[in-house]
Amino acid sequence: MKTYRVSGILVNMEPNGNRLKMQAEPYLVEYTKTPDIIIDLDEDKLNMLVEKNSHLSYDEIEYIYAGYVFYNRLLDFNGFFLHSSAVCVHNKAYLFSAPSGTGKSTHASLWKEYLGDEAVIINDDKPAIRLIEDEFFVFGTPFSGKTALNENMCVKLGAICILERGKENRINRIETEKAIFPILNQTLRPKEEEKMEVLLELLDKCLGKTKVYKLYCNMDIEAAKTAYEAMCGERLMDVLKTSMIKIEPVMNEVLDSGGEFRMIIKGTSMLPLLRQGKDSVVLKKEKPHKHDVVLYKRRNGAFVLHRIIGRNEKGFILCGDNQFAKEYGIGPDDIIAVVSYIIRDDRRIDKKCFKYRLYVRTLMFRRLYKRIKFAVRRVVKD
Predict the structure, then answer these.
(1) What's the chain's Rg over C-alpha atoms?
(2) Looking at the structure, do residues 90 and 206 belong to the same domain, yes or no?
(3) Is 13 helix (H, G, I), strand (E, B) or coil?
(4) 85: which of 2, 108, 137, 317 fits an S-S bond (Cβ 3.0–4.6 Å)?
(5) Measured between alpha carbons, how far is 261 from 300 in angstroms, rounded to an integer?
(6) What is the mean pLDDT of residues 83-98?
(7) What's the rounded Cα separation, in Å, for the pair 150 and 122?
(8) Residue 69 sits in the same domain as residue 92
(9) What's the rounded Cα separation, in Å, for the pair 341 and 350?
């Protein structure tokens, strides 16, 4: 069987249909360890389900069945799914939940229209939510309902929004007591009493830590603006205060599985390229090369985002674009990930694009010029 890492959980299954194969491919990993979950996609069993559900194809039955098995087992790993569309903004996940046909996917697409590349749809129908080290994280999964909108990524849960159609757009916070039943109705409720208790305990913890909103909205882009300003405005500075120590285990899980991890910039050492609190970077596990911007961990435990400007026998040489002091002896094991691309003002800046490469060349030329200028001054003084 093939092994997939879904929501940080090792899953063994052997898809036959094209739908499940295609959507599960980004989650494929090479592991020989014992899986956490085995999904038996027995053809005879699936063909029987096709006979009972003649309006669905074999591909659709296999896809639905695999998702059902996975989400049933998710509770064993301190997790549950919420029937919702999950959007990542400013390194936080915002979930829009409602019964089918209300317009949660439409509302999520309005966030994409309003915010551009700054908004990423994590999962358009069934994101997984897990409690890890006393924090709730939202994961993309291959099981995203009727669409293929899902990303192999993980971010902290920012807020949950319950949608209801309305003529005018308005949003307000709601109490936990008013949120529990709408949310419970939009998740998988286990038949076993013990598992139901686990689910209720998870929901109680989640709602105790998470702000929940009720949004009355139409399908106009103004609805996205109303929700964004209420849900994200107060969170912008919180992102900068997030402890890397807390998110490191989750970040490593996402990166090790081949996923992308997005984070907001903190600090001024990479100016003018990266602006604190405004720009974000998307990290991936890649082989680092000269001129790459990388996230690395110093021996004192500090996390730093700087550029590789050279290499010697002791390791990589790094420096911030806005600094002159170099850091030596950074080994490959110290480097956590490479910046794959940058998000600035709703635009994606790829490190291979012409303007970015021109910026790097100009930066290196200025560094060389300053070194020559400094050397000439020393010669003249001597």
Answers:
(1) 23
(2) yes
(3) strand
(4) 108
(5) 23
(6) 92
(7) 5
(8) no
(9) 5
Q: Whole domain around residue 315: which residue ranges?
A: 265-365
Same domain, 228 and 272: no
- Tell me: do 61 and 137 sit in the same domain: no
135-139 vs 84-89, strand pairing mode: unpaired
Stated length of the chain: 382
The 10s digit of each residue's pLDDT in 331-371 is 999 999 999 999 988 789 999 899 999 999 999 888 787 77
Q: The tokens 């919702």 sit on which residue?
A: 84
How many Cβ atoms from other residues are within 10 Å of residue 341's Cβ? 20
Specify the residue for token string 């209420």: 230
Structure tokens at 315: 């390791």
Q: Residue 94 corresponds to which amino acid?
A: Y
| Residue closest to 21 by CA, chosen among 35, 38, 4, 9 | 4
> Which residue type sits at 196?
M
At residue 101, the pLDDT reads 84
Q: What is the DSSP letter of 124?
A: S
Pseudo-torsion of CA 156, 135, 297, 277, nearest 10°?
Answer: 40
Q: Does a structural domain hold residue 360? A: yes
Q: 370 in a domain, yes or no?
A: no
The per-residue DSSP string of 141-171 comes to -S--TTS--B-SBEEEEEEEEEEEE-SS-EE
Instruction: Read off the pLDDT of residues 152-166 as tens digits, 9 standing for 90 and up.
Output: 999 999 999 999 998
Whether 97 and 214 map to the same domain: the answer is yes
Identify the helix (H) or strand (E) that includes residue 66. helix 58-74
